[in-house]
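Reading a protein record of the kind used here takes only a little practice. An example makes this concrete, so a full record is given next.
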Amino acid sequence: MLDWIQHLMQSMGYIGIALLMCLENVFPPIPSELIMPLAGFTASRGDLTFVGVVIAGTVGSVLGALPLYYIGKVVGEERLVKWADKYGAWLTVSGDEIRKADDWFDRHGHKMVLFVRLVPGVRSLISIPAGISGMPLPKFLLYTSIGTALWSTLLASLGLLLGEHYERVEQYLGPATYLILGGLLLYIVVSVIRRRRRQK
């Protein structure tokens, strides 16, 4: 993986960074925690500029968020509600609950599009509920651009500071990703158990 990322970045420069960050949103096994620190390290050697690296990472990440946004938009609230009413009983999810969740996203979730971009492991997934809720595309692009610019700047800066040891960024953030995903999974399991107990 690392050799492929290095080769693509060396051969394609900024376009390679943008392409990698675009793919990272769609294929999570390609980690931004490795791409952007390597790009920052490359900038520290003078092969690329730091600003160019951040812009390329941001543009690629925003482009990669669009397919997930449109998947959510195609599915839409009504289709999801119908699916939940028909098949959601085993997950104890009803159409009414999906409507309530969607209403909450309409009121508060737009800010989450920005903040979740800074959370390893789930940062790309927020595009789906944004699409489902019908979040206006200009607002989605604005919040996504701000969040991904901050994330790209942070990771590239760490790569700049760590130099040849840029791989440590992924080593440190990797466990954090698993903790976050594990916490979300635990929350879902506990929520399902509680709901089933209330139903009984």
